[in-house]
Protein: Ureidoglycolate hydrolase
Organism: Marivivens niveibacter
Amino acid sequence: MQIKAQPLTAENFAPYGDVLETAGDPDKIINRGMCGRFHDRAKLDFGPDGRAGISLFRAIPRDIPYVCDLLERHPDGSQAFVPMSMDSFLIIVAPDAGGKPADPVAFVSAAGQAINFHRGTWHGVLTPLHEPGLFAVIDRIGDTPNLEEVDITPVTITI
Ligand SMILES: NC(=O)N[C@@H](O)C(=O)O
Ligand code: NI
């Protein structure tokens, strides 16, 4: 199967998670007028037994077309990917169909956008498209594995 990644927007990503971006006016002007705060823009969820963690990922950029043959989800918490460079990256998600992923959907972010997968969202692993592939990842730290992985029929993704 081949799919084309669509531009990432808050609307088209809403079934899967949140898009973090400084679009429009800030919610608050702070720091004596020197900073706009886009306040509380993601639904973070770490479950009753977990806690929030920030990790840094340095991932190898992928070439396009990109073949995705694995999806995963985190049943116990959300996961946010925040690029530490002004580069686009590839986001692959899929609706759930009886505990397995349905056909995937792909998005490509604009520079300056970040995402937060809601708890349990089927997704491809972090997929940078440019060096340095450096991201801050905010997700659940806890005692459970919090990871379900599923091999899928390979999907070729273009942009
Ligand atoms: N496993 C891990 O830390 N990362 C994955 O969850 C991922 O989505 O990249
Ligand atoms: Ni993940």
Helices lie at 10-13. The chain has one helix and 17 strands. Residues 113 and 143 are 30 Å apart (CA to CA). The first strand starts at residue 2 and ends at 4.
